[in-house]
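User: Once you have settled down, look closely at the record that follows, taking as long as you need, and be ready to discuss the fold:
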Amino acid sequence: MAAPALIELRSVRNAPQDVWVVVGGERMHRLTRVAAAELGVYEGDRWTAALARRVDAYARAEALRRAALRLLGQRDHSTTSLRERLSRLGATTRDIQALLADLTRAGWLDDARTLASRTAALRDRGWSKARIASALEAEGFGEAAVARFLGAAAVNDRDSIREAIRSSRKGTPAAIARRLAAAGFDSDEIWAAMEAAGMANEGIES
């Protein structure tokens, strides 16, 4: 049986903190110098099967972390949403769970904070409470957690409708009513709010 090949560490151009791990003339992995030392990857040592497994596991974990941080950099995600997206990359359940726990400890992943920020964003769109709840549940937040948060945040359709009517600057009453209906508000609530506002109600069905 041939002896394991020797390891060569080559500097990465324009990235002095990184090295290529080269074995038998083939680039195997790109690592930081710190990671290489922590993993026991040294110039001239043998590239054993055990070392290859250790470095492969580290490289998979780092690739998964980069993918997760890229997703979180685009927008906040619930734990469930991020887990589902990472699972599509073919990562193991064990690797994903370990990463999610690490991201939570580091503050990158926070369901309470994300629930609050996503609710605020959806309210800014002028959506009804029911439509907001449906969207949040689709993003991976539990039904009970959503209901508790919306109740504590005093999300109220009547107030939302009145505010939408007060802030409307364009369109007929009928057009305003259609926009509110499209946002998920109840037609009876819309009717009552527009009557209270003293607006004509042509095109609005009670």
User: Anything to note?
Assistant: The chain has three domains: 1-47, 60-109, 111-196. The mean pLDDT is 89.
